[in-house]
Design a protein that fits this description.
- It is found in: Membrane.
- GO terms for molecular function: ABC-type transporter activity; ATP binding; ATP hydrolysis activity.
- The protein has helices spanning about 5, 50-55, 85-100, 155-165, 205-220, 225-240, 260-270, 290-305, 320-325, 345-350, 360-370, 390-400, 405-415, 430-450, 450-470, 480-500, 505-520, 525-555, 560-590, 590-610, 625-630, 635-645, 665-670, 680-710; strands at about 40, 45-50, 115-125, 130-140, 145-150, 175-180, 195, 275-280, 310-315, 325-330, 335-340, 380, 385, 650, 660-665.
- With about 725 residues, the protein is α/β, with parallel strands linked by helices.
- The protein folds into two domains: about 1-185 and about 310-425, no CATH class; about 430-710, no CATH class.
- β8 (about 275-280), α8 and β9 form a beta-alpha-beta unit.
- The structure holds adenosine-5'-triphosphate.
């Protein structure tokens, strides 16, 4: 069957850049679905269409629902009964109207235009090849417009948004052209805002705190604190969250906001800065119809102010919400079914034999018609039925041949020809010091409120140190205590520090929030690393000191406050190091289970090679002795702890042979094979140096990932 030969030509009404509704054109309150009604066109043909009154001047080849269709099965043809001369006249009229229609701004002004042409996105398939998830899409969105991306679940809405926002996953390959203001330029890190489908929020903060911290990070230093607070409060109110201002967002452990409320917090955070380009993935999911309407209405107003550009994927908008959008990009299985004004969608479907029934929300009708997930035949306006797959083919082919499609291509070319401005990602952002300060405070509050971050670890450390203290209680200075001291100190250096791995789930959550905020340009990578490092210091000090003092004094290690201070300092340095290591792991393996296994594996190797289980001189050369022994932080931790404990002590020699006593220094040299050429303070300094190195590596890895990802995707 040659679908292309039979599909009717569809021509849209001449308003791809439909002017925005004025406020007085509609109530602010959501209305009942009311726009599907029987109307008569100029030819006296009755058809169901909500917006028929808009179309009377234009030649839509709409299937009349009351008139029998031409006798073909599953193949659509232009109605033979049409008066062709009338049609031609109307076509000419339309072409004239199109020519006279203002094509948006002549320049981009301060706004951002996005165009995409022949956009393909492919992902690996099971056979080792690649399957397309977006197939040759072309479209545009201009300043002041709100584009709705619609289609059945899995049709590629999020993928299209990700592609436009420059955020595709690294296993995808993108071809085709995406231009921002007519130029090929990256769209991330502050040039646009993106509300993702999942709400990645700091669960311990209240709504007001979450939005206000974000305001402090995103708004420029030139704004006063009170102005930022005002902006945050106003945005919260705009999203209808005033009653939940002081409610914690909540997560798996504490019940806080509802799903819909979280959605609105996510939107609030991203619209705070009034972005010039806003991507929204399912902004209304979880919202009731009134909330959906108000949220979308607010976003439309945002687009109107200073001509901002909005692209939103949306699942099941009510008719009220659907009417708010300007253009519709309807997808099915990654293919473009329709791109054009939302007000001419009904025409397109009716023209192709799938008119929207009376009293049905048009968006429901479109989604039902283009969904092939369920093996249900689609009813045609004239009573026939075609399979869902065939319906989609008809619509896709019809759209390709339509004047609307050509019009979109023309508009894309026009926009691309303009010489648009380059985007500045650093525009009006808080300064580095402010970012570090705010991130440190926010992270500190989060750590304080999240029981799993440090409090639970503190409890477990106390329990473990009580066990250590009672098992090695009052260790004494007998010959046998030498081995016991060594084992106890090794346990502290290896196992107590290993336990810092318990914070990994919180690191993964932190990384998710960081990734979202970073991609939206809220702050820089360095500010995040500084904030994360400084906020954890008080807690790690507490964990080193409180359980440390219990273990130290119950065991009866070497007396003197300086010895205890060294012990606590080394424990603190090792914990910081393990946390830094786990942050690196979280940045590379952001999966909870995989990350813990990877982190535990790395630490296991270091522990094994740290000079306790196998004495340093016995480690096989070259790999384990050089460089692995020197890379392992356990080497320095063990050495430092041993020097701190054994130097200055003397143990009686209970063996029959040899001198009557043995000094700590001799034990260090012969028994533990410790490097004695430098002091214990050097060991702790090396561990702190490694902490700095690991944090820098963390920063470097994030920056590298940011740079490499677009290259992998083929951009
Ligand atoms: N990185 C990826 N690797 C493999 N497959 C992917 C990837 N991204 C998307 N897909 C697949 O592409 C298809 C489209 O996914 P996408 O998330 O864009 O759909 P969607 O229309 O947003 O769906 P929903 O409305 O349910 O969120 C799905 O089948 C999905 O499994």
């Amino acid at each position: 069957m040659d679908l292309q030969a039979n599909v009717p030509r569809w021509t849209p009404r001449p308003s791809p850049t439909r002017p925005l509704k004025k406020d007085n054109e509609r109530d602010d309150e959501p209305q009942m679905d009311s726009f599907a009604s029987d109307q008569e066109d100029d030819d006296g043909i009755s058809f169901h269409n909500s917006r028929t009154k808009n179309f009377n001047n234009f030649p839509f080849t709409t299937w009349p629902t009351a008139v029998p269709p031409p006798p073909h099965i599953g193949v659509l043809e232009a109605p033979s009964s049409r008066d062709h001369s009338t049609e031609m006249n109307r076509s000419m009229e339309m072409e004239r109207a199109i020519a006279q229609q203002p094509k948006g701004d002549d320049s981009f002004g301060n706004g951002i235009s996005v165009t995409w042409k022949d956009l393909w996105v492919r992902v690996p398939d099971k056979t080792g090849g690649r399957r397309p998830i977006l197939e040759g899409l072309t479209g545009y969105v201009e300043p002041g417009e709100v584009l709705a991306i619609m289609g059945p679940s899995g049709c590629g809405k999020s993928t299209l948004l990700d592609a436009l926002a420059g955020r595709l996953a690294s296993n995808t390959r993108q071809t085709g052209e995406i231009l921002i203001n007519g130029r090929k330029q990256p769209l991330a890190f502050g040039t646009s805002a993106y509300v993702t489908q999942d709400d990645t929020l700091m669960t311990t903060l209240t709504v007001r705190e979450a939005v206000y911290y974000s305001a402090q990070l995103q708004l420029p230093d030139s704004m006063s604190r009170s102005e930022k607070k005002e902006r945050a409060d106003a945005t919260i109110r705009e999203m209808g969250l005033q009653d939940a201002m002081n409610t914690r967002i909540g997560g798996w452990s504490i019940k806080g906001l509802s799903g819909g409320q979280k959605r609105r917090v996510s939107i609030s955070i991203e619209i705070l800065k009034r972005p010039k380009l806003l991507f929204l993935d399912e902004p209304t999911s979880g919202l009731d119809s009134a909330a959906s309407y108000h949220v979308m209405n607010r976003i439309i107003k945002l687009a109107q102010q200073d001509k901002r550009t909005v692209v939103a994927s949306i699942h099941q908008p009510s008719s009220e919400v659907f009417e708010l959008f300007h253009n519709l990009c309807l997808l099915s299985s990654g293919r473009s079914v329709y791109f054009g004004s939302t007000s001419t969608g009904n025409e397109f479907f009716a023209t192709n034999g799938f008119p929207c029934p009376a009293m049905r929300n048009p968006s429901d009708h479109y989604l039902r018609t283009v969904n092939k997930d369920f093996d249900v035949d689609i009813e045609q306006g004239f009573g026939g039925k075609v399979s869902a797959a065939e319906t989609i083919n008809i619509l896709v082919e019809s759209y390709k041949l339509s004047e609307a499609c050509q019009q979109v291509e023309r508009r894309v070319s026009e926009i691309c020809q303009k010489d648009g401005e380059a985007l500045d990602s650093k525009e009006s952002q808080a300064g580095f010091i402010t970012q570090c300060n705010v991130l440190t405070r926010r992270s500190f509050v989060n750590m304080y409120r999240d029981l799993g971050y440090y409090w639970l670890r503190l409890a477990i450390y106390i329990a473990l140190c009580l066990c250590v203290g009672t098992i090695f209680y009052d260790i004494g200075s007998s010959y046998g205590s030498i081995q016991a001291r060594g084992s106890m100190l090794m346990f502290v250096a290896a196992f107590l520090t290993f336990m810092a791995i318990g914070g990994f789930p919180s690191f993964v959550e932190d990384m998710k929030i960081f990734t979202r905020e970073r991609l939206n340009g809220h702050y820089g990578v360095a500010a995040f690393v500084v904030g994360n490092t400084f906020s954890s210091i008080p807690y790690l000090l507490m964990i080193s000191l409180v359980p440390g003092v219990m273990a130290y004094y119950l065991v009866g290690l070497q007396k003197g406050i300086d010895h205890f201070v060294y012990f606590a300092l080394m424990l603190f340095a090792c914990m910081m190091l393990v946390e830094s290591l786990m942050m690196i792991v979280a940045s590379v393996v952001p999966d909870f289970l995989m990350g813990i296994i990877t982190g535990a594996g790395i630490q296991g190797v270091m522990m094994l090679n740290g000079g306790f289980f196998r004495l340093p001189n016995d480690l096989p050369k070259p790999f384990w002795r050089y460089p692995m022994y020197y890379i392992s932080f356990h080497k320095y931790a063990n050495q430092g702890f041993y020097k701190n404990e054994f130097e200055g002590l003397t143990f009686p020699n209970e063996q029959a042979r040899g001198p009557p006593s043995i000094t700590g220094e001799e034990i260090l040299r012969t028994m533990w094979q410790v490097e004695m050429g430098y002091s214990k303070w050097m060991d702790v300094a090396i561990v702190f140096g490694m902490v700095i190195l690991y944090r820098l590596m963390f920063l470097g890895i994030i920056k590298t990932i940011e740079k490499v990802k677009p290259i992998i995707r083929g951009l």
